[in-house]
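Supplementary notes for students who missed Thursday's class. We covered one full example, reproduced here. Read the sequence, then the structure, then the short commentary at the end.
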Amino acid sequence: MNGGIRAKEVRVVAPDGEQIGVKKLNEALWLAEQLDLDLVEVAPTAKPPVCRLMDYGRYKYEQSVKQREARKSQTRTTIKELRMRVRIGDHDFDITRRKAQEFLQNYDKVKMTIRFRGRENERPSFGKDLMDRLAADLAEFGTVEQAPKVEGGSMTMVLAPMRRIKAPAVKKNEKQEEE
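Structure (token representation):
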């Protein structure tokens, strides 16, 4: 930018995008100073390098506003973890299922963990059956993102929420025609 440009000649582009032409660096800097703008090198590898006349401070501000808007529209997915035991009671299973359903409806991922103790480690199929039962109960709210797998003394499964379905937008003209 301005004094940091090292080329002897540069192709100058006006603020509106119109080509001014190839100028000596001193002429381009003088032109930028007369217009109260900055000379910014946009394509340093071109022959000759391309420089644009612009208000650099305003350009940086607009970029930060765009980034801020992009961050606002982003959604962060959070993973909620629920734990169960292999020998869980029906009522406790229902509570865990309801909690997982609540998380999925809030568009959070759910990581289900079953811990095995002692002789339960010899029968991981009991844990898999329990996970499959839970996945079947929650099929309308979420899908299995990671199938049940045994890691050490526990089994984990990840459920992802169903995608949000947006209602089709009705145009103003269509609304007026219906009335």
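Commentary. Residues 166-171 have pLDDT under 50 and may be disordered. The longest strand covers residues 142-151. If anything here is unclear, bring it to office hours.
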